[in-house]
Amino acid sequence: MKFLGLNAIFHDPAAALVVDGEVVAAAEEERFSRRKHGKRPVPFAAWEPPEQAAAWCLAQAGLRPEDLDGVAYSYDPALVRPGQRGLDERWEDLRTTYARRAPNFLATALPGLDPAQVRYVPHHVAHAASAGLAAPYRDSAVLVCDGRGEAVSHLAGRYADGELAVLAAQELPHSLGLMYEEVTEHLGFMRSSDEYKVMAMASYGEPRFLGELRELIRATGDGGFRVEPVDWAGYAKRLGRGEPWSEDHADLAASVQRRLEEVLLDLVRWLHERTGERRLTMAGGVALNCVANTRLLAEGPFDELWVQPAAGDAGTALGGALHLAQAAGEPAAPMPGADLGRGWTDEELAAWLQAARVPYERPADLAAAVAAELAADRIVAWFQGRSEYGPRALGRRSLLAHPGRAANTERLNDVKGREQFRPIAPMVLAERAADIFERGPIPSPYMLFVHDVRPEWRDRIPAVVHVDGTARIQTVDRAGDPLLARTLQEFEARTGLPVVVNTSLNTAGRPMVDDPRDALECFGSAPVDLLVLGPYLIRRGRVFAS
User: Fold this and answer.
1) Per-residue confidence at 40, pLDDT binned at 50, 70, 90?
2) What's the pTM value of the predicted model, to 2 decimals?
3) Which of 11, 37, 127, 174 is catalytic?
4) Active site (annotated) includes residue 249
């Protein structure tokens, strides 16, 4: 059976396709539209159907809309409760009206689709399915925590043989995700987008406001929590965009981050007591907080923690499709990886380069050629295979650089046009990771945890060591990505360093590169030395005059 999942209600519109219980394709609309998070500078633009992503998913499987057995829409307007304290009723009415009309909108976007095939899946159930049904095990406790769904902001439950039992759900307006969004905006960043910047800034501060926040943000002992209104201005003045941040701002970020971790620990301890499970799966935007994830694994009661790599709202497209498949009696297979987006053959990539009249070469040993360039301290734009589903660059659409040069942190942040307090991440062969990193889980293929860098390595790979001595690593498996693994091996042979810098292939405010045109445009506009497009290598000096 064939099920398409769609997210198009808050932000990050996306589509995913599940066929016979297997995840076939998944992509975010921003990779096609080039509008980050699916947002336009007009109200409610995120509600647009992910038309291009959905059409591509179907084309990838050779299907038409009429071939589908069901379409999951990851929001159920019947669950909305009007008049909830603290919520803008005008927005709620508009959102609910849009969702009710979604089947007709989708039938227009996907000609041939029967509107009766569209089925509403509750937002947090879709999140839960994206974790509990996509994980590499059938039974687990599951925790969802984000800004909001129809009427709640979190779900705690258990998957047993693919069936979900909901044990707790926190009603709005109490929301850990919305609280974190508020402080994100107060610190001068974009809410529902830049929360990871608060997490990075937190490492520069001390949690001196923690005592007050413990009174306002607290678990209730029954699987839920309370978040009372917070006067953020009482801790630090509101930052305008581009204004320099102060010690107060860093301390506020540190305090909020620490309190989030503490409340999450309370929630997972309660969930463990109720389920007795050894394994916890997580989704929802809060699950992208890799510092909190690491603390949950280190101090929480669960032996294993698996986080959906597309944990934000884009992941509800996948979860919705998996939920329908499971309900139809088709047990979901574990998610094969995050490389679920578009890809091109070598011949197609060559045609792109020829059409663009870009001189290129095809090295006999691409891994060795790229490793030599990295060892010479050149920045490499790396475009390989199918693009990643979710916000992390995982060696498919990445910028690579030398980790042994401390100046490369500032250099790459300048290339990407982003704040200098932001860390850049290392990728490392899975079998070498434990020699260099400790505390976090190994393997860690999705960049969803932080690891302590062993003291003897901190001066050797300074570009990827954050101010607090940690790094958000990606481990590379030889069987899963042999080309990248060989590149790391060749780089170590030249430098003695088994680590390479990996950050997303994009510039500030732009979605991650997805297709060859995006790659060429990014290469043309950013000070990057080489572009590796499949088996082909393009050198800046041969394309652009110096």
Assistant:
1) low
2) 0.95
3) 11
4) no
